[in-house]
Queue: 3 jobs
Job 1
Amino acid sequence: MEEDKQWVLEMTAKLHSYDPVQEPMAWKNRSIYMVPSNLIEPSKRHAYSPQMVSFGPYHHGRPHLIPMEDHKQRTLLHVLHRTSIPLQAIIDSVKQVEPQLRNQYDDQASLPDSAGAFLKMMVVDGFFMLEILRTAEKVPSDYTANDPIFSWHGMLYVLPYVKRDMLMLENQIPLLVLDRLVAAETRKPKSEDGYVHKLVADFFSLNIEATKAPGSGLGLHVLDVYRKGRIEGPVRLHRSVDGKKQSVVVRSVTELYEAGVRFTKSKTNSLKDIEFRHGVLSLPWIMLDDTSESSLLNLLAFERLHVGAGIEVSAYVSFMDEIIDTDKDVALLQKKGIILNALGSDKAVAKLFNELSRDVTIDPNSKLGEVYRALGAYSLQKTNVWRANLIHTYFRSPWAFLSLLAAIVLLGLTIAQTVYSALSYYVSLNQNNSSPPPPSLSAPPPSRF
C-alpha cells in the first residue's frame, strides 16, 4: 500500500512538471542512440561497440576501454600546458550548454546524475577527440616521438582503431562540445566559423562543403558530419605525410597477373625484400605450416605494442592480404615458388592472411608503400592489360602460338592477294586508257585533185 502511495506521489510530481509543448522539442534534439537489440545480429555486436576508446557515456568504464582513460587525461594535461587556459574556464564554457548536450542522448538513464561527472566526461573526451582530429594536419609538437598515441607509431597502430570507434553511433559526443572547447581555447565567444567541420572533413578526407547541412552551421556529431560528406559530395583522395597521393586499391594476384604483372621469387626470404620493377613483382618466399599463425600473431602484437620496433612484419602481412583473396591467388604464388604451403590447402593460406591483417596498415611513405602505389598504377594501364591478354591467350602453349602464327600468315596472304588483285585491275585500266585510239572506220574526205 505504501508503494502505491509513493508511486502516486511520483506520478503527480511528474504530471505537474509535464509540458506537452516541450515534448516534441525533446525528441527532436535526440541524435545519439543505443542500437536496439532487434537490429543486431549476435555475431555483429562488435560492429556497434568501440574496441579502443569510449566517447560519451554509453560505453564509459567498460573494462577493455579503461586503459585509454589514462591517455585521455594525459592529453588534457598537454592541452592545458600548451594553452595556459584555466580548467575552470573550460568547464564553465561547456556548462553553458549542458542541457542541450544532455538532450542529445536518447538513453537518459546512461548519463551521470551529477553535473560535475557529466561535464568532466565531455571535457576529457572532447579534448581527446580534438587532438585526434588535428593529427590530420600535424601532430602537436609537445608530444614525444615515442608517444604511444600521438606519434608516427601511434598513427599507424592506434589511429585506425580510434578512427573506427569515432564512427560508431553509440560512441558519439555532441559536436557542440568541440565547438565550446575551441571557443575556450581561442578565448572567443565562439569558435571560428566552420573550424570544427573542417577538422572532421580533413580527418576523414571529405569535401568540406558537403559536410555542411543547408541552413545550419554545426552538425550533430562526427558520424552526422561523416554521413553528409559521403552522400553529398566527392570524397577526396587520402594524402600521405609528404603530400603524395596514396595508391588506389591493389588487385589480387590473379587480377594482377591478368593485367600483365609477372611474379618472381626474391633473392632472399627477408620480408622487406619486396620490389616491383618493369612489370615484375618480386616477393620473398615463405614457408607456412601449423605454427605460422601463432608466430605471426605474436610478431604483429610486438610491433603493435612496442614503439620503435618497426612495422616490417605488419606491412608484409597487410600487403599479402591485399593481393591474396582466394585459393587461386595462393596457387599462382605457390607455382612461382613464393609460397611453400604446408598447411594442407590453398584456402587455408588465403584465410590465414585475410584474418591476420585486421586493422594492420602499410606506412604510405615506406618502400613498400611506393611498391603498393606503383603496382596499383601499373595494373590500371590499359596497354598493360591488352598486352597481358594477348600473351595469356596466344602464348600459353606452343599450339596456341602456332595457331596465332598460322592465322597471321593466312591474314597476310589474304591481304597480299587482295592488294595484288587491286593493283592488277588498276594497271590494266591504266594501260587501256593510255593506248592510241583505234583507226576511224569512216571514209576519208574527197581529194581536191
Note: Residues 398-434 form the longest helix (37 residues).
Job 2
Amino acid sequence: MDFRISNFLPVSEMIATSGQPEENDFGDIAEQGYQAVVNLAMSSSEGALPNEGDIVTSLGMGYVHIPVPFDRPTPQHFELFAAVMAHYQNRPVWLHCALNMRVSAFVYLYNRIYRALPDSDAGPLLAAIWRPDSTWRALIEEILSSHGLTLR
C-alpha cells in the first residue's frame, strides 16, 4: 500500500516510519498488519491527536507514547525506545513523530546498535528524512560512543 502520510519511509518488512498520521490513516495502518504504533512526538506537537492512543487501541494495535522534546532529547529517551522495540521484536510496528525526524534518528541508532548495521546501511535511511541538527548530532554521537561505535 502507498501511504500518503508525511515523510513515510518503510525501513523493513517489520518497521515503517512516518510523520504524524491523520486519524483515518490508523485504519489503513492496522489493515496492513501493523501490530503496534509508537509515537515519539510531544502531545503539543503540530498535528498531534489528543486521542491517538484510543484510536490505535480501538483498532486492535498496541500503542506506546514516548514524548521526546525535539530540543532536549536524552539517551534515556532512546533507551526506552530500544526497550519498546525489543518488546515488539518480530512484530510489525509503525513508528512516528511529528515529521519523522525524532524517529529517523532513533531508528538509525537502533539499526547501528541493536541490529549491528554498518553506517553505510543505516545512514541513508536517516539522510532520506533529514540531516540532524547540532542537538541531535551530539545525542547520536553520545549514544553511539557509549556503545563503542562512531558516527560515519
Note: The CA atoms of residues 29 and 94 lie 8 Å apart.
Job 3
Amino acid sequence: MMRKSRGFEGELIIEVPKIAITNCEELPLIRSLFISRMGFYPKALHHYYQRPGGISQVILLYCTDGKGWIQIQDENITVHAGEIIVIPTGIPHSYGADSKNPWSIYWFHLNGSQGNEAAYAIMGAENQNFQPIQVGFSDERNVIFKQIATTFLKGYSAANLLLANLSLPYYLSTFIAPEFFSRQNGVTTHVSATDRAVKFMQENLSRAITLDNIAQSAHLSISFFSRKFKQDTGYTPIEYFNHLRIQKGCQLLHFSDLRINEVASQIGIDDPFYFSRLFKQQMGVSPVNYRKNKGIDLH
C-alpha cells in the first residue's frame, strides 16, 4: 500500500484577479498557458459543482486522499486517491466528493491557447471517455504546488505572475511522467523497463552494445521491449543509444583534446568515418567543424 505524501496544510483558494489575467495574456512567456484559479480542499465533504455547458478554462483535479466522483459524457466515474482527471474546455460535467470518504484535492483552472493541449498531454489524446489516470503520490509535486501558491499569495506583479506560471509546466510534468516523481523519502517506487534500459545505455557508452544486450538489461524479449521503448520515448533503442553516444561525443569535443578517432573510440565506435557520418546526421555539422566552432553555428 502506497503511503500518501505530505501535502499543503489547510484549505486554500486563489482567485487570480481579472487585471492579472489580462497581464498574463500579454506576457509572451506565459500567455499560452497560465493559471486563473487554484486551490486545495482537504476532506471536502460537501464539495460539488455542476456545469451543464462546461467552462472556458481547463479543469485539473488531483485526488490525494479519499475519493470523489465525476459525471462526464453521461458516464459516472469514481476518482480515487492517487488519480488525476483533467477536463478540457467546453465539456459538460459535474463532480463532487464521496459522502462517506470525501476526497482531498489539489485543483487548477488553466487558461491560454495551449490549455487543451496540456489536458490531452496528461490524459492522453486517445482517452475519449476522460477516465482518471493513476499518477501516485509525490512530495516533490506538492512542494511545487506550494511554491506556486506562495508566489501568488505575495501578489500579482509581473515577476510573480511569471514565476508562478513558469513553474506550472514543471508541475504538469509530474503527471505526464509520474515515474520520475513518485518517490517517498528519496526512494523510487517504480523503475520501468525503459528506465532500466536507458541506465544500461548510459553506463555502457564506451561499448558497442547490441539491441539484444539492451533488451536483456530490461528483462524483456527483443520484440516486446522494442515496441515498448519506442512507445515510451518515440525512438528505437538503437536510435536512442546513438543519441546518447553523440551527446557524449559533443562533450568530449568541447572539453578534451582527444583526436576525432579517439573521441569515436570513447563512445564505442571503432570506425571514425562512421562516427563522422553519424555525428553530422544528428548535429548537422561534422565533428571537426563542431569542435572548431564549439557548436555555435549549429542552429
Note: The longest strand covers residues 34-41.
